Amino acid sequence: MAATVYREYALLTRNRTNLLLAVVPTAVYLLLFATSLSHLVGSVRYGGRRVDYAEFTVPALLLSAMLAAATTAGVSLFQERLGRMDIQLWSYPLRRSSYVAGKLVVSTALVLLQSLAALTAALVLFDFRWPPGHWAAVLCGSVVASMAFNGLYLLLATVFTDFQRFTVTINVVAPVLLFASPSFYPPQDMAPVLRVLSWANPVTYGIRCLRDAVFGGFGAAWPWMLVLAAVASLSCALISRALLALARAA
Fold it and tell me: pTM, whole model, 2 decimals?
């Protein structure tokens, strides 16, 4: 298991392209998007009160980092499937559960570091005065949400067999999910159709988890954390079954 974690860490960090794609978009959004729109919009209504727009967008920026890291993890699993490396890796003495867990652990750790860096930059750029419990809730929510989205992307990597279709799909899914959820705008300001569809969008629950953690701490965010934890657990079980079915079919 330790060797698997180290291997996944090397795959994610030694490839400079993947590392830059996972880190740079969050920094660009934070420096350009949030700072500019915070002056333009000022404040929005969320949870029955007016909140600063910069604080409102921080969860969306964290989610964008999670989706970028999940994309990298999904591509890694798909490439290993094409080369038949997955069967070699999770054959004895490495179990399928350890193989999947290694990818989830490293991707989640990378997302947590990105979240800490983004929150530190946001604290420097903006005057956030969150209680310590809210900071802890945001970090805990980031871990649970990261595991959920990494699980979903890894599951997506077990569905496709064509490389081009998978590459197009996995790179299009992230922005569609992000902007079809109440990420950069309150739910009540979304178009009616998008508002209904957002309930089937998993990013909506990640956004709600982190945003409620920002403004309400653990007391407001724990229901969403439970939902995301259930998604992560179900995804891991389905990934393991899918890998076994693919191995038998081969």
Answer: 0.83
